Amino acid sequence: MRIEYDKLVRDGVPGAIEADGHSCRIEVLSREAYIIELKRKLVEEAREALESSTEDDLLLELADLTEVIVSLLNASGVSHEDLEALRLQCRAKRGGFEQRLLLRYVDRAEPPISR
Q1: What is the DSSP letter of 21?
Q2: Alpha helix (H) ranges present in the chain?
Q3: How far apart are CA 31 and CA 38, in angstroms?
Q4: DSSP secondary structure string for all residues of 69-85
Q5: What are the boundaries of each domain within the chain?
Q6: How far is CA 31 from CA 28, 61, 106, in A?
Q7: Taking Cα atoms as reference points, which of 87, 84, 83, 107 lies closest to residue 97?
Q8: Do residues 35 and 75 lie in contact, with contact meaning Cβ atoms separated by under 8 Å?
Q9: What secondary structure letter does DSSP report for 13?
């Protein structure tokens, strides 16, 4: 019975599938396709983090997210230091998330009537 996945997997997955007595077909992606699939994997792992129900599950999903981020940085030619510098710059400008603020709505002021 064939099960279609068409998704990026960790390097050890094909070997594990074959060790279980199954066969699989893999494809090595171009750099451009790889970056697209990493972005899809980022969303997949973020969704799994959202759905985690225990601290251990959340930690595992955050580890997976981090692995995808590191791979995406490497594939894009961006250093960890560049990312961290940008993160700190954004934090200095807009703050972090420590205050646990949830924006419910904004009442926008009416623009003045020009005559």
Answers
A1: T
A2: 13-19, 31-51, 55-76, 80-94
A3: 10
A4: HHHHHHHHT--HHHHHH
A5: 30-93
A6: 9, 25, 42
A7: 87
A8: yes
A9: H
Name the one residue in this structure whose structure tokens are 């005559």.
115
pTM of the model as a whole? 0.85
Q: Tokens 């999903």 appear where?
A: 61
Count of CA atoms in the C-beta half-sphere (13 A) of 69: 12
- Is residue 81 within 8 Å of 73, Cβ to Cβ? no
Query: Are the CB atoms for 27 and 39 separated by under 8 Å?
Result: no
SS3 of residue 44 by DSSP: helix
Q: Is 112's pLDDT higher than 90?
A: no
Token pair 């972005």: residue: 39
Q: At what angle do helices 31-51 and 55-76 cross, to 10 degrees?
A: 160
Q: What's the pLDDT score for residue 67? A: 97
In this prediction, residue 35 has a pLDDT band, given cuts at 50, 70 and 90, of very high
Contact 81, 89 (CB under 8 A): no
Q: Map tokens 């030619």 to a residue.
A: 77
